[in-house]
Write a structure and sequence with these properties.
The chain is an alpha/beta fold and about 475 residues long. Helix content is about 50%, strand content about 15%.
């Protein structure tokens, strides 16, 4: 079993440190935020992540998980030092590396013997080499006798299932200039049955960006298809299902909605595009992915306005604020843009989320009203918007909702509900890329005619139109 230090107790650092402790290692988690560390020592977690609290408690009590603010306590004895600090988005879209730099410098000051420094933070291509140069410089400037190797080991943890993802990885990626160093790190994961890819530093760093970019691309792709479905009268949910059975395509990340948010996709796609542009590449696909993602939010507001007319003075309820279910994370949540737009247009917005309300209060306009349950939120409302697909909203008592609402408009931003069922309840139900049957019939007929017009009214097109 190894002695490990993890710098940074955010999502990635805390999950990584805790899970490595659970695998039997001794892990010291370090953060410069003294209040955070004090709270962690009392078993209070800075984030909501299913299963993590119990795991922290168990390993802390067993003495395998230690919390500190002191580099001199954490680093010298460690065989492995993970850097898992934040890389916030700089003003121009590039990743801001000041915390990585601070961590590398602080580690260098107290390094002892031989240590493998592992980059877990998502960092621009070339950062591994840069971290190595910071460490080298610091060591040269001091009298410290120590050696090190740098390994890139990107994380692929999803918020809300981060512990499961850590323990059941699809793959582990390790990049280094020294293969032996990467192999040493791979030994930390030997209990997890997973393919391990060992490569160079830059390739490992790129695997992380490219992985997030393709997932974001799939989401924007299906959102674009949803827009086309809306106008041509097809059902995007069935389209995605039909596509997903093709093994070359697969069903994942094809849920149309109000766009991706969170701490990773928006920041990483932007950073990759920025990296490409600064090296004279034209990242046209990435730019389109980002545009479509912003459009998804804008088009949702337009859909509401089309149905309600002006939203000024209208009471609109919102179910779900977090960027996705099972997290209290509000970073880049589509709900923020949608609610802000509605408030600016004069709507009276009442919101409810099972866990993200505390974080949302700091980010939403002052005029927004917060409620403690989904029913209070919809009372006297003229519309309800489903913005995060929490399980709780799947089990809503719609008979009760019906009695409480002033008008029965339901805008489903995540395609959570069955359109027919909602219409049976009496709702004017609008989702993403799922037009109602009437529209489906008439619009597909009209669109087909338009298409036939575009293609030229040859015998094939006309005979197909005539058959309908
Ligand atoms: C993501 C990656 O999945 C993870 O591997 C990486 O390390 C960090 O970023 P996360 O941000 O936690 O994880 O969430 P994820 O489940 O990937 O969802 C991201 C966003 O995409 C959410 O806003 C979600 O609602 C949206 N999404 C996802 C869709 O709109 N449609 C989909 O089909 C899937």
């Amino acid at each position: 079993m190894s002695k490990i230090c993890v710098v940074g107790t955010g999502y990635v650092g805390l999950v990584t440190g805790t899970c490595l402790a659970d695998l039997g290692n001794t892990v010291i988690c370090l953060d410069v935020d003294a209040e955070k560390i004090a709270r962690l020592k009392c078993g209070e977690l800075p984030i909501y992540e299913p299963g993590l609290e119990e795991l922290v408690k168990r390993n802390y009590e067993a003495g395998r998980l230690i919390f500190t603010t002191n580099y001199a306590e954490a680093v010298p004895e460690a065989e492995f030092a993970f850097i898992a600090v934040g890389t916030p988005q700089g003003e121009d879209g590039s990743a801001d590396l000041k915390y990585v730099e601070m961590a590398a410098e602080s580690i260098a000051k107290v390094l002892k013997g031989h240590t493998i420094i592992i980059n877990k933070s998502t960092v621009p291509i070339g950062t591994g080499d840069w971290v190595a140069s910071i460490l080298e410089r610091s060591l040269n400037d001091s009298s410290v006798e120590a050696t090190f190797e740098v390994v890139s080991n990107p994380e692929f943890l999803r918020e809300g299932s981060a512990v499961f993802d850590f323990m059941n990885p699809d793959r582990i990626v390790l990049g280094s200039t020294k293969r032996a160093a990467a192999e040493m790190v791979s030994s930390l994961y030997s209990a997890l049955k997973s393919p391990i890819i060992i490569t160079d530093l830059r390739t490992a760093e790129m695997i992380k960006y490219a992985s997030n970019a393709i997932l974001a691309t799939r989401i924007s792709f299906i959102n674009e298809i949803a827009q086309i479905c809306d106008t041509l009268g097809a059902d995007v949910k069935v389209v995605a299902e039909g596509m997903g059975y093709d093994k070359r395509i697969g069903p994942q990340f094809l849920q149309a909605g109000i766009g991706y948010g969170g701490s990773c996709f928006p920041k990483d796609v932007k950073a990759l595009a920025h990296m490409a542009a600064t090296h004279n590449c034209h990242p046209q696909l990435l730019l389109a992915v980002m545009d479509i993602n912003q459009d998804a939010r804008r088009l949702f507001v337009q859909k509401i306005e089309r149905k309600l007319g002006s939203v000024t003075g209208r009471r609109i309820a919102v179910w779900g604020l977090a960027f996705k279910p099972n997290t209290d994370d509000m970073r880049e949540a589509p709900a923020l843009d949608i609610i802000t737009a509605l408030v600016r247009k004069g709507a009276e917005v009442i919101v409810y989320d099972p866990v993200a309300m505390k974080n949302a209060r700091m980010l939403l306009p002052g005029a927004v009203e917060f409620c403690n349950d989904p029913y209070t939120a919809v009372t006297e409302a003229e519309a309800v918007l489903l913005l995060t697909e929490w399980n709780e909203f799947k089990q809503v008592n719609f008979q009760k909702v019906k009695k409480l609402m002033h008008r029965l408009n339901l805008f489903d931003g995540r395609n959570l509900y069955d359109p027919e069922e909602m219409r049976r309840f009496g709702f004017n139900y609008e989702a993403i890329g799922r037009p109602d049957e009437e529209l489906q019939d008439s619009s597909s007929f009209n669109s087909f005619r338009a298409l036939a017009g575009i293609l030229g009214s040859g015998p094939l097109e006309m005979s197909r139109v005539a058959k309908r």
